[in-house]
Design a protein that fits this description.
The structure is a homodimer. Chain A folds into two domains: about 170 residues, NAD(P)-binding Rossmann-like Domain (Rossmann fold), CATH 3.40.50; about 100 residues, 6-phosphogluconate dehydrogenase C-terminal fold, CATH 1.10.3660. Helix content of chain A is about 50%, strand content about 15%. Chain A has eleven helices and eight strands. In chain A, strands 3-2-1-4-5-6-7-8 form an eight-stranded mixed β-sheet, with helices on both faces. At the A-B interface, helix 6, helix 7, helix 8, helix 9 and helix 10 of A face helix 6, helix 7, helix 8, helix 9 and helix 10 of B.
Chain lengths: ~290, ~290
């Protein structure tokens, strides 16, 4: 059943691409009165205010007192500290959600930091991004038609989950709910592993004495395959560590498949190579992003 | 020294994207009188003629007699047969070149098939492509600003190499000469391995019972990383086999690097992960395609 959403005061912790875009989308949808921004860097907050993403810069977490909804959109590695920091200042009815790429670790941190208030925490992951970061990259249409995964726990207040669902829907997203463990396994496979695989390939080349020689002849296939290797090393270090177990399982399955291909190549087994390539090619052609 | 290029009769064997685009570019540059097309499929040749890529459809290799330059732009796996087939019909002054993605194997096939005429064979590889194939995908600007690698051998007539150089330059490309072994090692690293790595990742997912679940949540990172997994399985089977040794060496180096990352992850070694990711991210950002 659709929840009629109205947020008097929305707090955004981390007013970069994700937090800023969400604030902008909710303002445009006219479901929020006032957006308060929090963050480590004053400069970012001032940029966000100048760009109209937020209305008020909070000087400390104490200013969270009147927030109806708090969205944590910082890098994954900061979430534990942020949760501990804001916990004492949350109002009794405040709903807290996040936008991190991994969910089990954030849920564990929220459970520990929020105590009784954990029932009003709804873990979330918007599947959206852009080449650029920071407040200046924010845009109100970033989430339109995108999937947002929410991972409510058994203890989560259903009304809090419904509010967070309505919030992302107001920003134009499609909301899907699933178990946090399943979320982390799926994203280890379709996001975290591809990043690791691209980082590995580029680093392997970059570490060679004649690296420039190789890069010079790289063309469009290389460009596409390695685009994600240009991503933030710190962010991906943290995501990899946060989703370590699921990612190790994916990495191992991937290395097995590469070993299978190496064996087929070693034996000049044309049929085996073609089988792998055909299945992959067919699956890739059938796949439509966010269908 | 620039060679003044003038081709009375150009023969194109395989009038798809590459062969067709080259014919079109050379016609537009006004350096060719007549283009004769050869190929296995009559339908493709008729399409190529209807599109103005070629002027004449050759019914058999015997019609190659008057060709000044023959460009073999078929899939790699067909080159050996094509070379054997055309060899007896080549004129004494005819220059032969190819557009295959691997060079050592094509050179070996040309050496065997062409006999004395091998001195007028110049192995080539245009680093260009497009999402689509076939004559209808051909465009006269496909090679503008692109690298074309030529691999003349010790026995290659320098005048033949200069003519093929001038031909690609007339199509707008930059020509680089290098040893065939070096070519194959470089392209194993920057093209063939990325294709294998993308095929492997997609196949590993596609083979799972819950594959749809995974693909459903894949987003832009996955899209870019796996785009090349949509490539032709037959073509890549043949390229992989043709460049087997160099590719096996690359695959092994890549698997070692992935093993290194797995060990860092296993040990939760944040510094080691960050080092790999940072080096890769920096190298990827510094890389400019065809700079």
């Amino acid at each position: 059943m659709p929840v009629s959403l109205y947020i008097h005061r929305l707090a955004i912790v981390g007013t970069g691409l994700i937090g800023g875009s969400l604030a902008l989308a909710l303002k445009q949808a006219d479901v929020v009165d006032e957006v308060v921004g929090l963050g480590r860097r004053r400069e970012t907050l001032e940029q966000a205010k100048a760009l109209g993403l937020i209305d008020v810069i909070a000087d400390s977490s104490a200013q969270l007192a009147g927030a109806d909804v708090v969205v944590i959109a910082t890098p994954v590695a900061q979430m534990q500290c942020v949760l501990r920091d804001i916990a004492p200042h949350l109002g009794a009815r405040a709903i807290v959600t996040d936008a991190g790429s991994t969910k089990c670790d954030v849920i564990a941190a929220a459970r520990e930091a929020l105590g009784e208030k954990f029932s009003r925490f709804v873990a979330g992951h918007p599947i959206a991004g852009a080449e650029s970061n920071g407040p200046q990259a924010a845009r109100s249409d970033l989430f339109i038609g995108r999937n947002v995964v929410l991972c409510p726990e058994a203890k989560t207040d259903p009304a809090a989950a419904d509010t967070v669902t309505a919030l992302w829907q107001a920003a134009g997203a499609q909301v899907v709910r699933m178990d946090a463990g399943r979320h982390d396994r799926i994203f280890a496979a379709v996001s975290h592993l591809p990043h690791l695989a691209a980082f590995a390939l580029v680093d392997e080349l970059a570490a060679r004495p004649q690296a420039e020689d190789f890069f010079r002849y790289a063309a469009s296939g290389f460009r596409d395959f390695t685009r994600i290797a240009g991503s933030s090393p710190e962010m991906w270090r943290d995501i990899a560590l946060a989703n370590r177990e699921a990612l190790l399982a994916e990495l191992s399955a991937y290395m097995n498949k590469l070993g299978e291909i190496a064996a087929a190549l070693e034996n000049a087994d044309a049929a085996a190579l073609e089988q792998v390539f055909s299945r992959a090619s067919k699956a890739r052609r059938n796949w439509k992003e966010n269908e």
